């Protein structure tokens, strides 16, 4: 698999990474054995970056990943962990905590659940509005000095926060949503990251399945994260967005690839400093996604995609107002 550098100071990794969230939370039930088999298949195919969060399934996802990495497989993986999102026993959300003491507490529990001596990339899941980013990054920098963390990343922050954080300690990469229908980072965040030498780890490259080519109107209203919190999956917005996907399908068919492969390849074509996370929960979907590794889109292909799916064409925001109000990356 082709590899890329995560920023000036980050590690080198395969250009496709695996996001594990759906194996534990938010997208409905998942099969544990199939999840483990999918992680192993990804590693065998050359995937290195594995992304988890301590709040995915309230620790379940880290335990799952720890099981998958027992033995020699640890040496093949770059483990990225997000922290700070607070949950309640019913699975609800209770804000964020990125105080220095909390940072070190979360890290201690993550290391235990993962069964690791260090975390390769450690990042707050969101900006805590009550804690200066300098304090949060400073606490992770202490963990770097102590050998518990190798690199510091961020997630869903804006350009100003990137600058402030990077002034405290080099930031390897910014994890942020980026896809053919989620292009907000092009309005300043991407440019700032490149100026500072910070890589981009793009998640949501298939917009949570919406532009995978496999979603249908019959799935509207499913009782998972998408139906509850993402306006793009709701009502007339969904019908509009699925019509856009059909236009993309025509381009994919002309290239002899799937819609999902085209969507992933589009993200990779936006720059050598971008790594794409795919959220496959099953080996079948993983194999399809891995096919994007060999897809090279030319200028004519990209121009055609820009014509059928220009920036801003999607209906509905990526999150509802409740999840957007404190989202630092949206404050530009």
From TrEMBL:
The keyword Oxidoreductase applies. One of its GO terms (cellular component) is cytoplasm. Keywords: Oxidoreductase. Residues 16-308 form the NADP-dependent oxidoreductase domain. GO terms for molecular function: oxidoreductase activity. SUPFAM superfamilies: NAD(P)-linked oxidoreductase. InterPro entries: Aldo-Keto_reductase, NAD(P)_OxRdtase_dom_sf, NADP_OxRdtase_dom. It holds the Pfam family Aldo_ket_red. This is Aryl-alcohol dehydrogenase-like predicted oxidoreductase. It comes from Pseudoduganella violacea.
């Amino acid at each position: 698999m082709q590899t890329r550098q995560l920023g000036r100071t980050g590690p080198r990794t395969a250009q496709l990474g695996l996001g594990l969230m759906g194996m534990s939370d938010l997208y409905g039930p998942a099969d544990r054995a199939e999840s483990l088999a999918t992680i192993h298949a990804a590693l065998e195919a050359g995937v290195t970056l594995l992304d988890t969060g301590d709040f995915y399934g309230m620790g379940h996802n880290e335990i799952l990943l720890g099981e998958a990495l027992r033995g020699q497989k640890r040496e093949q993986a770059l483990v990225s962990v997000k922290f700070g999102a607070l949950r309640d026993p019913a699975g609800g959300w209770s804000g964020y905590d990125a105080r220095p003491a909390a940072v070190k507490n979360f890290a201690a529990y993550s290391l235990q659940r993962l069964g690791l001596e260090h975390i390769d990339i450690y990042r707050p899941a969101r900006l805590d509005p009550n804690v200066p980013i300098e304090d949060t990054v400073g606490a992770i920098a202490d963990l770097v000095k102590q050998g518990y963390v190798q690199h510091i990343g961020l997630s869903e922050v804006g350009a100003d926060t990137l600058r402030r954080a990077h002034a405290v300690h080099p930031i390897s990469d910014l994890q942020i949503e980026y896809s053919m229908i989620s292009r907000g980072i092009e309005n300043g965040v991407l440019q700032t990251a490149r100026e500072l030498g910070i890589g981009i780890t793009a998640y949501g490259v298939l917009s949570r399945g919406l532009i995978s080519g496999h979603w249908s109107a019959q799935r509207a209203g499913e009782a998972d994260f998408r139906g509850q919190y993402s306006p793009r999956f709701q009502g007339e917005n969904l019908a509009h967005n699925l019509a856009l996907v059909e236009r993309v399908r025509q381009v994919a068919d002309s290239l002899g690839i799937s819609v999902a492969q085209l969507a992933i390849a589009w993200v990779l074509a936006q720059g050598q400093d971008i790594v794409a996370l795919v959220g496959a929960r099953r080996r079948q979907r993983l194999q399809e996604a891995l096919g994007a590794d060999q897809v090279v889109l030319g200028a004519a292909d990209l121009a055609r995609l820009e014509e059928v799916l220009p920036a801003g064409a999607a209906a509905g925001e990526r999150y509802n107002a409740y999840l957007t109000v404190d989202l630092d990356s949206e404050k530009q």
